[in-house]
Amino acid sequence: MICLVFMTVSLNLIGTLQKELQIKTIDEYQEYFNNQIKKLSDYIEVRYQLEKGLHTVVVKDIDQEQETILNVPARFVSSFYDHMHDNSKWELFEIVREVWEQQGRTEIFELQGIMIALLQQDLYNKYVKNWSNSTNEDDIFMWHYLTYLKHVLILDDLGLWNEEQTLFYQQVTLDRMEDDLNRKQLFNEITQQLRERYRDDENKHKLDDFMQTMGSFEDFTIWMSAVCSRSHSIQLEVYLEIKGDQKEDQKLREEKAQKFEQIFGIHVLALQPILDLTNHYTKELGKSDIDIYLTDGIKGSTIKDSYFTYTADSAFQVGEEFVYTYMSHDQTQIKLFKHYGMVLSNNVDSYYEFSINDPKRQLNKELSQLCSSTFECFEEVNLDKQHLSYKFRLNLYDISQPFYNFLRFLNIQQDPNYDLQNVITSLNKDGFISYENEQIVFLQAFQILQQEYERRLTIEELNQRVMILEQTQGVWQNDSLRRQMLTYKVLIQTQQVILTNMNLAVYYETQMILRQAIESQVY
């Protein structure tokens, strides 16, 4: 169960608190709650920080035994960083793994691997120092890649390749593959195939711009470092074959497929379409099983920009790819939206759930009472265990699942604009919750996030940098300047895709809110 906690207290509940806990004001109540969490955090050796989203919820298992779950925003996990050098602290992650195994979520996320990456982040500065002045092709690529991840996307749990990944990259940048197929020739064949397909297409100029950014095979090693798009999908079965154990029995694979379908739908989002196109092209040594095409935007919406999409007919094995770009990372809503411009419905990775074992799970009696009586919570109610359908409630009003999911996403923000009390006020401005209020809050929040993203690194700023470089004499002869300009162009394309995806996310999620409201006739 995941429960979002709001700090709104009605007058009668304040009166109850005054009698039982000698709390006279809401501020005193919040201070009391924070102190209780601090006590709890001492038990489980987690440093507590005052931020929205950290809370506990008391739940009952099948045997009606009471259990306390600590829900921690995904972003908060990074605060474990300076506590993880002591091996004794890994007990916490064993607890998490145990809980997730019980929930059947081990195939979605590997927390310990992420924590190891976090612990090794201090190597980043060493990498940049050694590689920034190097003339080696691989070093130059890794420097660009790490710089992009660290300073553009700000992916705190990325930015580190293990030895196997580094060796694989060195292998795939060779002109010739082990099967004697020339990689550079293959790359040129793929790009030529795309050009021929859209030779007479009305969107040909967009494809030309896209291909120009890719440049030559050598420039492609820079382009591939940018996570360019999340507006593409591959079949669920393909994703499971990539992520899963190929030796698993069919029944177990079907069970995993059902769980993934509940979370991600029948398709999952894939990285970089041209890279996957290349990977699938090599599968049959020159025979492509990818169908790639351009959309014309979404009819009936403000989304008019064309974007790439594709389908794959077959899967490939990990380690057999032409290029390797998949790295461990979480898929929290805020990260997906800020970095790729989209959100996922039913995203279970927005929170980590820590089950606190006896005696550590026992909060004091007052806190348990507060969690069940004072807090106004979102509740997931399993209406049909066989089909895992859920009903979402806020202050006894039913709300739509996309909006529930979106508010979970808002709950991990520190910015005062995302204050959940303000959300509650907006939702209840008419004395009740309606889909119109949901939509208003939703759009306002996305607008704030989009403005935040645009402030961080604007397309106009990048275009100015490119313009200056293009006017620099000898830029194409100077390897460093040429790569710098290509990197900027890649970032421009990335920003454009992200902003387009942001608009698509707003359109998709708001339509889901509206559609579910009408279908359920809740409002």
UniProtKB/TrEMBL annotation:
SUPFAM superfamilies for this protein: SET domain
Keywords: Signal
Single GO molecular function: protein-lysine N-methyltransferase activity
Signal peptide extent: 1-18
Name of the protein in question: Rubisco LSMT substrate-binding domain-containing protein
Organism: Stylonychia lemnae
